[in-house]
Write a structure and sequence with these properties.
It is a single chain. The chain is 44% helix and 17% strand. It is α/β, with parallel strands linked by helices. The strands form two sheets. The protein has a six-stranded mixed sheet with strand order 1-2-3-5-7-10, with helices on both faces. Helix 8 runs antiparallel to helix 9 (211-223). The protein is globular, with a radius of gyration of 18 Å.
């Protein structure tokens, strides 16, 4: 598929998705959201892809907002969060509104030290509508989420790291290499176990879902995989495992 608003690249088992609307600070309009949904779906379905890195074009913005009228954005963030492959947000600049909500839906966030993040929707008479109230609260706690959302203020990358909003902070030059190195490390682990971990961890923040029961179910599924047998055999033989996602 040819994309008008995205750049897609593949490096070994990693799919790079770059939101390419630099003149608009990579804001998510209807067309971009639809393309992003398609690109993510394709990457999840592609057996050659083990994980995804999402970033923005240029140096100013990761994604500086989203079209508040386009509810397809909710589908995109839910698709990412619940996907069975790891997704890392490489936050290269401003991540505001729907842009921060997109980043929070990713499983891991790496930020450039120049990045700034916030949910300024109340300045428009709105609140975050792509799951931002829920995900921010889970990541930084109720008190800080209340403060950030009700003031609409931004936080720096360093503050975001301190709060637990991002996992790591690095220089702009090292942003993609750091994200790639982390994802490459994850991709040496058992793919089915990674997918099971995502499911179980997500269950921890859901109402009407018993996270402990979900963990037990996913744990039990792992026992029936060839990867589990390979992992145990490799451990006993003191060698690196060769996981196949089976």
């Amino acid at each position: 598929m040819t994309y008008q608003n995205l750049l897609i690249d593949h490096k070994e088992r990693i799919a790079y998705i770059t939101i390419n609307r630099e003149s608009k600070l990579n804001a998510l309009n209807k067309a971009t959201l639809a393309e992003l949904h398609q690109a993510i779906s394709d990457a999840f379905a592609d057996e050659r892809v083990g994980g995804i890195i999402i970033t923005g074009a240029g140096t100013k913005a990761f994604v500086a907002g989203a079209d508040i009228a386009e509810f397809i954005g909710v589908d995109v963030v839910d698709l990412i969060e619940n996907g069975g492959k790891p997704v890392i947000a490489a936050i290269n600049g401003f991540a505001l509104g729907g842009g921060l909500e997109l980043a929070m839906a990713c499983h891991i966030r790496i930020a450039a030290d120049t990045a700034k993040m916030g949910l300024p929707e109340v300045t428009l008479g709105l609140i975050p509508g792509y799951g931002g109230t829920q995900r921010l609260t889970r990541l930084v706690g109720k008190g800080k989420a209340m403060e950030m959302i009700m003031t609409g203020d931004m936080v720096t990358a360093a503050e975001a790291h301190q709060l637990g909003l991002v996992n790591q902070v690095t220089t702009a030059e090292n942003l993609l290499p750091v994200a790639e190195a982390l994802l490459q490390k994850i991709l040496t682990r058992a793919p089915l176990a990674i997918a099971a971990a995502i499911t179980a961890i997500n269950a921890a923040g859901r109402n009407n879902v018993n996270g402990f029961e979900t963990e037990i179910e996913e744990f039990a599924k792992c026992f029936g995989t060839a990867d589990f047998k390979e992992g145990v055999t490799a451990f006993l033989q003191k060698r690196k495992p060769g996981f196949k996602g089976e």
